[in-house]
Amino acid sequence: MENYSVQVPTYTVGPEAYRQIEKQCHIYGKKAVVVGGKKAMAAAKDKLLAAVKDTGIEILDFVWFGGECTFNNAKKLEQLEAVRQADMIFAVGGGKAIDTCKLVSIDFEKPYFSFPTIASNCAPTSAVSIVYNEDGTFCKFVHFLEPAKHVFINTEIIANAPKEYLWAGIGDTYAKYYEVSISARGEKLEHFKAMGVQLSRMCMEAMVEHGAQALKDNEQGVASYALEQVALDIIITAGWVSLLVAREHTMDYNGGVAHAFFYGLCNLPGFDEDHLHGVVVGFGVLLLLMIDGKEEECQKLIAFNKTVGLPAKLSEVGVTVEEVAKSLSHLKAIAVLDKATSVNGAGAPLFTDVTSSMYTQNVHVPTVNYVYGIGGRDTTTKEIASVYADLEKIAQTGDIQNPYRYLGLRRRGE
To answer: What distances in angstroms separate CA 85 from CA 33, 37, 61, 101, 381, one per listed residue?
Structure first.
């Protein structure tokens, strides 16, 4: 039997949440450095200074995190004297700021505390950083053994933050339920994973019950019950689910098609800068449900998306034909996988969309179409590997041969 520990952070929520700083932080030292976004620190600074006054805890400095979660920005922070002298890090802001603080925390072995100023994702609670390259494209996931020591959720600050962040948080959070539950379906799970899967249902239920009202209250700057419940679900519940299902530092359950859709689109120039993570992930859930054959559930979610203004069709995500073609132009060979075939004789639906966009933009890359899942059959890793092997040959020779192919098709007598 394996010995292991599961750690989830405690939290304080409310308009006076920062008043608990002394109680939660004093055992870790007397010096803190605040690292965060510029707007986030401006929103939280006075409340933080007031909360630590006469407590024996000193804030050495307020430091901008660099604007993007990159290894380079983390290294720059580690050169600062205030960061080096601090006993603990106060991570203030949204996901990218807090994820950058996690990188610094692990390098310096300093405890960090999360102070989310927006409710857009579960970064304040999770034990993973989403790291990007210097050009804004996705780089890698970095997992940690421990999450934040405590999460301070000031609902007054969140209520006065721009509404689009809560809006994005709703999409990112209900995605947790669908991705986790579908990924874990039919599997025999250890206690911690099973607990995470069961808890993930709350990530959807609270959004449906309170999401629309929370957005209205956010627009009015009101720290209401509905806003508090939604913020807790986005920041705490989703974060705990992430910690539980990804305790082994894998993304087997803590992710899926919805997030893959977003990270794939990050390869489009400037996409990450112009689109909120959770908004795109929310649309990605619709793709996930259609791939999983849950059309009725997909229609229900489309109806919910419309009530809160989340995208229900690709054009509302802002992906254009020009962008798709441009993102493919540097490749040597392309495979398009369709789950449905077509009687038009020119390829399956997605294939024809992709190749049409390339043609209209004068982009010419050898492209082959694969139809998978015929008759409801599973697609294996071996079959996916064969696609890559085919692409390598096409890239080398430029010879497509048959552009219309099938994966897992049984031959007569098999």
So the answer is: 8, 21, 10, 15, 49
